[in-house]
Amino acid sequence: MRDADSMARCPASPLALDRQGVTDPQDFYAAVRNSAPMFVPEIDAWLVTRSADILEVAADPVQFSHRYPAGPHFSKMFRDSMARAMAMPGAPPNVEGAATMGRGVLFSSDPPDHARQRGIVAAVFSPRELKAIGVQSQEIAHRLIDRFADRGEVELVSELAWPLPLEVIARRMGVPVEKLSTFRYWSENLAKTLGGGLLSDAETLEILRALTEFHAYFSERLDEAAENPHPDILGLLAGNAEKLSRQEMLGMLLQFLVAGHETTTALISFLALRLAKDPELVEMLRGDRSLVATFVEEGLRLESPSQGTFRRAKQDVEIGGVRIPAGDHIFLPFASVNRDPDRHAEADCLHLQRTGEHGHVAFGRGAHFCLGAPLARLNANVAVNAILDRLANIRLVGDRPYEYNKSYMVRCLSYLRLSVSPLSEARGEGLGSTLKED
Fold first, then answer.
1. Backbone conformation region of residue 348, classed left if phi is above 0, alpha if psi is from -120 to 50, else beta
2. Helix (H) or strand (E) holding 155
3. Cα 165 to Cα 161: distance, rounded to the nearest angstrom
4. Segments forming the whole domain that contains residue 107
């Protein structure tokens, strides 16, 4: 039955963008985890609840399309907002290409296009490239901490969790240092497209301007890279002009900026919040840096920065005994799978010695497993080790030291206020196995 009556007695729903539901979505997912698929009007889609069903749908590109990963409700709302913004007096000219450049690319593409596109850019995050990126990431992290280590207090999202992955990906995209402030402006505005609430006309107009500027800038840079090849993402894309359209190249660059950067920011913020709440955990990790990698994985599992994704049924299908008509959309909450007690012992607890369990699915499943997962893990490991190297007495500040963004798709702290003091230890220690030779 196409209604949500069975959800009436559930805790506050993140899908309705209820503030409590967004802050703590796990109460809701725990309440519905073993229910049959149910239609949720707020997102105009079916919510699949059982872990086995979620994973099966996510790994099936034959019956389900990935071309609409943001879902029908937000996609329509965004298209309508963009249409209004394009008609406003302050709208930039010639915006059609910019407004659609991310469609049908990587995360929003189906076979065979997805395999072709992914095969070309997979080398961006090869082990060799990651080693070089790791050195840069460590340097950036310590430079950022230099700015606030002696100050006593820090708003960690804006001063570390956001700029670290932003500068790392900017360098890989060939963006010069003097352009970083503009790059950040683009990123801040484009991140608003990731499944939140209704956008105002003013916000949409800013997004449109950011898209247009991004499109123009990287079109010019791709032309330069085609004439004078260089070893970065731009050079890789420009060198594959016979396999990729210009719109595909620009769409990939857009996804590298927005999707990867935002979720890595969220992950670093969550890990820092855990450290601030648990001084014993700080000392445990500081004493045994081999545990940092597990801490990062537990952070991914417990918090799931990317809470889930949508699929669209290509044909009439049955999921969990419920018929889903062709053309209907389905929301797959990976965050629920990651806290499923049938998959993880003491699923709501952080354990640094987990063994013999199912892995988490914070980066998705199947052919669309996140291409940037190795980079996200690297930046998170670097950030945690840099915090442990440099900062002591990490504590929350104020009556409301942190808050979550209002989105059911991307779980992220909008701010995190901490008190800190400098730790007198040798800089550069603690990166552990991240940069070691094999």
1. alpha
2. strand 153-155
3. 7
4. 5-435
The Cα 315–Cα 346 span in angstroms is 38
The pair phi, psi for residue 353, each rounded to 5°, is -130, 45
Amino acid at 390: R
- Pick the residue with more confidence: 220 or 128? 220
Q: How many domains does the chain have?
A: 1
Q: Rounded to whole angstroms, what are the CA distances from 282 to 143, 229, 290?
A: 21, 45, 13
Strand partners of residue 196 = 407
pLDDT per residue as tens digits for the range 233-273: 999 999 999 999 999 999 999 988 887 688 899 999 999 99
Label the pairing between strands 329-332 and 45-47. Answer: parallel
* Stated pTM of the model: 0.91
Q: Which amino acid is at 46?
A: W
Q: What are 17's two structure tokens?
A: 């963008």
**Structure-derived torsion over alpha carbons of residues 259, 263, 264, 270, reported in degrees to the nearest 10:** 170
**HEC profile of 1-48:** CCCCHHHCCCCCCHHHCCHHHHHCCHHHHHHHCCCCCEEEHHHCEEEC
pLDDT of residue 430: 43
* DSSP output for 31-94: HHTTSPPEEEGGGTEEEP-SHHHHHHHHT-TTTEE-S-TT-HHHHHHHHHHHHHHHTSTTPPSS
Of 19-23, 69-73, 404-408, the least confident? 69-73
C-alpha span between 286 and 296 (Å, rounded): 14
Q: Are 434 and 400 in contact (CB under 8 A)?
A: no
The one-letter amino acid code at 384 reads V
Helix (H) or strand (E) holding 131: helix 127-146
- Can you give the CATH number for the domain in which 33 is found? 1.10.630.10
